[in-house]
Amino acid sequence: MNGRISRKTLEELRLRASIVDVVSEYVELRRAGSSLRGLCPFHREKTPSFFVSSEKGVFHCFGCGAGGDFISFVMQYKKVDYREAVEELCERTGVEVIYEGGGGEADVLKRLFDVNRFGADYYHKVLFQKGNPARTYLKKRGIEEDTARSLTIGYGGGGRRGLAREIKVEGLDVEAAIECGLLFQRRNGEVVDRFSGRLIFPIFTTAGKIAGFAGRSLDDSEPKYINSSESRIYKKKNLLYGLNFSGKFVREEGRVYVVEGYMDWIIMWQAGIKNVVATCGTAMTSNHFRALKKVTDKVILLFDGDMAGRKAAVRSMEPAYEAGISPLVFFPPKKRDPDDWIREVGVESVKDALGGAKLLMEYIIDAAAKKFDLNSISQRLDYLKLVGKYLKNVRDPVEKEMFVQEIAAKLNLTADDIRKWTAKQEGDVIAAPGIDSAEKALKIKPEEAMVGFLLKHPRCAAREDVKMAISAIEDTELAEIASKLTNEPDESGTILESSINREGEKLASKLSKAVLLYEQFFPEEKEGDLEKILGFIALRRKEDELARIISAFKEEGDRAKREEMLRLQMKLKKDIEETRKNL
Predict the structure, then answer these.
(1) Is there a contact between 152 and 120 (Cβ–Cβ < 8 Å)?
(2) What pLDDT sits at residue 305?
(3) Which CATH number fits the domain 105-227, given the four candidates 3.90.980.10, 3.40.50.1820, 3.90.1200.10, 3.40.50.360?
(4) 353 three-class SS
(5) Distance CA 286, CA 324 (A)
(6) Whole-prediction pTM value?
């Protein structure tokens, strides 16, 4: 997307999004003074060294140094750039993204959606022309005409240039149609239809706009399905087929079934199971689960009963728990898919059977037990390693404890044995420094705590002793931020925000660390805290000066100068002692 994300968008996002809400989706946070604390998601550790300040909207890990605001968090966790992080957060919070300086981005998006709507209507009309092989195919698959009409199913049977010709006749944007993947341009420059000869399923956003299409071959030739290419409006990792239709029913039923195929969805929908969605030719992602969580917490993966379907369900575990969903699974018997199953046994039998869905982790525990010989010590260990790999995704302590007890029963061990083993496996990387190291950091770099204090009490930056302390900061980036606070004390929030968002991860980490250092060691957050921080700064400088003199003393050969240095050492040591007593 061209153009900058507008300031209005960012302001609206900051009003709707909370760093605690964003981070809590990935990290279990607990109150620690005026901040929140948890295990860092960016490195493995046993002792929590990851802190979040809800007041200033920043996070920092004192172990690995990661830090920033909620946008920085998504950037680092998802490994996306600033724009992608903002766009994802806006989508999750319902904020409309407005771009500026990019040549009318809202108009571009409208043209993309408009050309998709035109393409859907065109192919839908073609489907209901006489002598159409696609209608014969639908009848064979058990899809009724009313269903096809309500879902705007279409057929690309108008030749290789049918849609391309109609788009030009209507004066629509050909480039937009190419970007959407309705058309494609050959090497010779000729523009032709992408979905020619295929049965076409429009894919809607939850707002009812057509974002893309899936096209199925009528004779099962490969590729059986082709999808719209990724575009500004079509991203498979975010879209679920049918959610625009089923959202109301999902809320009413309190659960949602997720199937893998468009035909699976259509047959279930037509049979009266309305609380269902389908993936768009891709694996389930954390964004899919988050979209579902807006309407229900109960997600049942109804994937194909063959090995491929079972593996796909297991792969869904990590993104599900990442989104805060503990998914259930059910596999149709005899390796069937939901489409065949429902047509073979009938909807009532399917509904009854679905009551037997079990938690995905429970399925893994049971299925793995059948895979290994649990009378063999080596295979018992292999079993434990396998289920332990998935168990680490479970974040709710009560739920995790129930699974621990299930695993223990399978192995005839105690739950405590399993807890100790999993704790050892999850902590097999040397833990990063926790809070004790943060205390050392305060003593080593009190200037950071001072900047954290000034971001909360910016008017104190006008004090002469503070200005002197700022002028002596050796870290040029921190010194620049501190200087801005002395010149613009009323803009502390803006300074923090702009520095985190625009100056890079290194500075974002420094600033978030500064805020959290201050919050952790001065939980009451009084203006008088500044005296203690300045005391630490003075102590550090005296210690540095003493170390310099001791080093020079060892090299000095002149007796008089050595005596002078000795006197200075004694004086500095006394000053340092006094300063320490007052801190």
Answers:
(1) yes
(2) 92
(3) 3.90.980.10
(4) helix
(5) 9
(6) 0.63
